[in-house]
Design a protein that fits this description.
The complex is a heterodimer of chains A (329) and B (114).
Chain A lengths: L10 H18 L6 H43 L5 H36 L3 H16 L11 H4 L2 H10 L3 H46 L6 H11 L11 H44 L7 H33 L4
Chain B lengths: L8 H23 L3 H23 L7 H21 L5 H23 L1
Classes of the chains: A mainly alpha (329), B mainly alpha (114).
Chain lengths: 329, 114
């Protein structure tokens, strides 16, 4: 007769052991078991965070422009613009820059997660996780504004630990937490962003009105653009009448308003991108196969708009440089 | 976090006041007849600008009924300004209206800071 170690256990104990083994297996499996899906999600996550970074950068540029133009307008209008008021705008610029850096670090962390899921690169992932933690801790609030700390919570520690331990499911959840916090902050501050865009347009309009009234603006470039549309050359020495100057001013303002409209549309697209990415990662965490169609569509729109904004601003910089050099573009 | 999605009505009211003065400063200035009126317009513009910048930096508690009531007064005052601004034949009266509205705006900002 076999000894106690060799005797087969009764049926009930066999079923219990099998159940325990299955439970242990589930605990050990990552929450999102498909590395390919996670790699794809990490790529769109990196691009989404990149779009967020680019949006914050363009907003920071807009706030710089407001500061410059208000200095000019205040002087012309004979109104004070003291250091405490400048500081209010400078703090907002700093806050936007720190948000851009945090979004950039988030993009790097997603890239690292993608590399981790696709290959064996723990050192790269660990460094990206630490960079992300540092960047999120450095997000400055808008002056006396939205309190960031409750949004971030314990995300920073979670991400670093998860990425260092190569726990893909945990890393997905941790980055999802960070992205959700970024999206909530973005939504909470939208009216501030819209206000900055609108204020920039107002300042440019006011400056243009003043300079045109003083006859110091040369509308030739706009005249040339209109002439090009007709296919006819400008008459040599053509001098626009007052009515024509007014009309050209309206045309110039249309271009300024277009930038404002593009930035507002970019804000919508960036937020849509973040929300779509959150859905992708939520699906992964729940072990559902995610669809990337929505996030890819939102990303394409956001990228197109941000590229158009960058192109317009590059034209403006080129015109500024040409003016400083004493010529027209 | 005290922010909410969507536009804060209080911030929107102050923005509308400041943006109106920013956009119409030249027109209003050209309509003034005395140095005193010009200085009043300048003071009102600066106050409206600073109210808005501080407000953009703060977040309002829009659940406070006193803030609600004051914000409605600011909005109503802005309508008065725009109506008066369509006719520039009584600049002194227009400037009084603007000053009243801007002072309401300052009260709104200081309430939210509490």
């Amino acid at each position: 007769m076999p000894g106690p170690l060799l005797r087969r256990p009764p049926d009930g104990r066999r079923r219990g052991a099998a159940a325990l083994a299955a439970a242990l297996a589930l605990l050990l499996l990552p929450a999102c078991a498909d590395p390919q899906q996670l790699t794809a999600a990490a790529q769109t996550g990196s691009q989404a965070a990149g779009a967020l970074r680019d949006f914050y950068k363009t907003l920071s540029d807009d706030a710089e422009t407001i500061l410059e133009l208000e200095s000019f307008l205040s002087s012309l209008r004979g109104v004070p613009f003291d250091s405490s008021e400048r500081q209010l705008v400078e703090q907002q610029i700093a806050a936007l820059d720190s948000r851009a850096r945090a979004a950039d670090r988030l993009a790097s962390a997603y890239s690292a997660l993608g590399a981790l899921a696709g290959t064996d690169a723990p050192e790269v992932a660990a460094t990206a996780g630490r960079n992300l933690a540092t960047a999120i801790e450095g997000i400055a609030p808008m002056p006396q504004g939205v309190d960031v700390a409750p949004l971030v919570g314990t995300v920073t520690g979670d991400i670093t630990a998860a990425i260092e331990a190569r726990e893909l499911g945990k890393a997905n959840r941790a980055l999802l937490s960070a992205l959700s916090a970024a999206q909530r902050l973005f939504a909470a501050e939208r009216d501030l962003y819209d206000g900055i865009v609108a204020e920039r347009a107002n300042k440019i309009e006011a400056v243009e009105e003043l300079l045109l009234a003083q006859g110091v603006l040369d509308p030739s470039p706009l005249l040339q653009q209109l002439a090009t549309l007709t296919g006819l050359p400008l008459a040599a020495g053509a001098q626009p009448s007052d009515d024509l100057r007014q009309a050209l001013s309206a045309l110039a303002l249309t271009k300024t308003e277009r930038l404002g409209a593009l930035t507002a549309a970019a804000a919508e697209s960036v937020e849509a991108t973040l929300l779509a990415q959150i859905q992708v990662q939520t699906a992964l965490g729940e072990r559902r196969a995610p669809s990337l169609a929505q996030v890819n569509g939102a990303l394409a729109r956001a990228t197109t708009l941000l590229d158009q904004i960058a192109a317009i601003k590059q034209e403006e910089e080129a015109a500024k440089a040409a003016a400083a050099a004493g010529g027209n573009p | 976090m005290t922010g909410t999605s969507g536009t804060s009505p209080s911030l929107a009211a102050l923005q509308e006041q400041y943006f109106y003065l920013d956009r119409n400063f030249n027109r209003l200035f050209m309509a003034t007849k005395t140095d005193e009126d010009r200085d009043t317009l300048r003071t009102d513009y600066v106050q409206a600008r600073d109210n808005y910048w501080k407000a953009r930096a703060q977040r309002f508690n829009d659940d406070d009924p006193m803030v609600d009531d004051l914000q409605q007064k600011v909005t109503a005052a802005q309508r008065d300004i725009e109506r008066a601004g369509e006719r520039l034949d009584d600049v002194a009266s227009l400037l009084d209206t603007i000053t009243t509205a801007v002072n309401l705006g300052s009260r709104l900002v200081s309430l939210a800071a509490v």
